[in-house]
Here is the input.
Amino acid sequence: MFGRDETVRCANRSTKGTGIGGIRQCFNNPATVEVTVRYGDGALEFDTHVLCDECGAVLKGDAHSHGYSVTTKRLHGMTSAQERKARVKANAKLVELGRVYHDGLALDKLDAILSENGFNTLESAIYCGRDGRSHEQVGERTWLSLTWHKMEQTGRYEIVAYLS
Here is the structure.
C-alpha cells in the first residue's frame, strides 16, 4: 500500500516568491531544526519556524546581523553513539576556542560549534560577573559546562567549555 509522505518539510520551501525574512528558499527539504527569533526584549515578540539546516543557518545569521536573539533546537534526536561522536568532535573545537582570550564570552562561536555538531544552541540568558559558570542541556544526553574569567588588566575573557 502506498502512503503519503509524512515527513515534516522546511517552512521556507517553495518554487516561487521570497522566503521567510527574505532569505533564499530551499526546495522541499526535510525540516531538521526549530528556529526561534526574538525581537526587542524577546518576551512578547518572537517567531518560531521549522526549517532545514541550510535555511536555519541563513535565518540565524540574518537575524544576528539585525541584532535579534536566536535559539535553535534539533527536531530529530541522535542515537547515543551518534551523540557521543558529535560530543568528541565538538569538544575538540571547544578546546581550540579556549586556547585564546576573547573580548566577550564568544557565545556566537559556542552556538556555531554546537549547531554544526547537531546540538541545540544556548538558551537566551544574561551572563554576568567577572567569574561565572553555566551548565546547560544541549542534547538528549549531553550537557555543556561553561566557565569564564575576566582578566583584570586586559579585560579579556578566558573561557573553558566542554560537553559531557
Observations:
- The chain has two domains: 1-76, 77-164.
- The first helix runs from residue 53 to 65.
